[in-house]
């Protein structure tokens, strides 16, 4: 009987030690879970944009992108995480019957690896694979003049490597702002592709992304009028019910440049090789993980499958949704926060 009681005591002690270790912000177990938030929050947002890309050669009813990451491995015991990544875009043409013709399908997987032990100055690397196609299987034909957007086949595969790093600015345990960077190398060179894109497509691209985000700290709409504002200093007496640390504003800059050989363009053909866009997101307190979106950019190579020959400046307005930071205060005296996404 004494041995059983001693065993129970030892197991209880070990459980409490593990629980305390998980709450420590510098423990590996805590950081492995915390970094999953970074992987998800740095994932591209989904959106719907009435009228689509204003400035494109076609007129659209809307453009919509649905992108997410399914974390199939993300445990406190490993700094490695794995996700399945579907990324679908459609453009509904503003013509008779409102067709989509060639939706843009990308699906693949990503492996994330935490590189350091500092959640306020995070660093991680990503290795991923994507299949990119438009869902068509029309027999290939010689390209003469303008491409057939209606039913020509487009498909390719690519791998990518990314290095992400950023800095989080805190007021006590409340996040006020963050600066986030990403370097990317993407290449289709290891895989076969349709003849229609060979010699005239950006198979290898280098890219850089920057994202500045601000966060608010306020009382939940469901429990109190939103009379408290961003200037309120967090109090240790705040409990889990009501007080929220929420992303309010995000400004993104994304750019990429094709560095592989083109049949008819040299390495300095910026108008053909460069893609660049800037996007502003604003999320009022009542929109939770949804935000208003305003974007502008230039496509030297339209990323929408068979439309790759199109180059134009554009503007996009709409509503976006994704893994915006949205956390509530925890009840414990350890003053931690918990994710709600």
Automatic annotation (TrEMBL):
Keywords: Signal. Residues 1-19 form the signal peptide. It comes from the Bacteria. The keyword Signal applies. This is DUF4421 domain-containing protein.
């Amino acid at each position: 009987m004494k041995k059983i009681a001693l065993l129970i005591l030892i197991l209880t002690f070990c459980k409490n030690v593990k629980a305390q270790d998980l709450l420590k912000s510098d423990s590996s177990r805590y950081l492995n879970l915390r970094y999953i938030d970074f992987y998800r929050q740095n994932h591209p947002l989904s959106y719907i944009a009435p009228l689509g890309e204003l400035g494109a050669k076609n007129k659209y009813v809307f453009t919509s992108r649905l992108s997410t990451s399914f974390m199939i491995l993300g445990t406190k015991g490993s700094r490695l995480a794995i996700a399945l990544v579907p990324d679908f875009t459609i453009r509904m043409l503003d013509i008779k019957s409102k067709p989509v013709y060639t939706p843009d399908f990308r699906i693949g997987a990503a492996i994330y690896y935490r590189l350091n032990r500092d959640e306020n100055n995070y660093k991680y690397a990503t290795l991923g694979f994507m299949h990119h196609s438009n869902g068509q299987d029309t027999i290939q034909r010689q390209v003469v003049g303008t491409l057939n957007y209606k039913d020509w086949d487009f498909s390719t595969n690519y791998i990518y490597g990314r290095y992400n790093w950023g800095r989080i600015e805190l007021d006590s345990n409340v996040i006020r702002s963050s600066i986030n960077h990403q370097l990317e190398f993407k290449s289709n060179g290891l895989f076969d592709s349709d003849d229609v894109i060979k010699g005239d497509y950006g198979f290898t691209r280098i890219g850089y992304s920057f994202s500045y985000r601000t966060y608010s700290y306020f009382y939940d709409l469901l429990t109190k009028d939103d009379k408290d504002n961003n200037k309120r200093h967090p109090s240790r007496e705040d409990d889990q019910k009501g007080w929220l640390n929420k992303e309010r504003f995000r400004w993104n800059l994304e750019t990429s440049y094709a560095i592989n050989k083109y049949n008819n363009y040299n390495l300095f053909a910026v108008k053909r090789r460069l893609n660049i866009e800037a996007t502003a997101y604003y999320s009022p307190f009542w929109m939770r993980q949804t935000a208003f979106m305003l974007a502008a950019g230039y496509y030297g190579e339209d990323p929408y499958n068979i439309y790759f020959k199109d180059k134009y400046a554009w503007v996009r307005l709409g509503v976006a949704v994704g893994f915006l930071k949205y956390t509530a205060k925890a009840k414990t005296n350890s003053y931690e926060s918990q994710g709600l996404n």
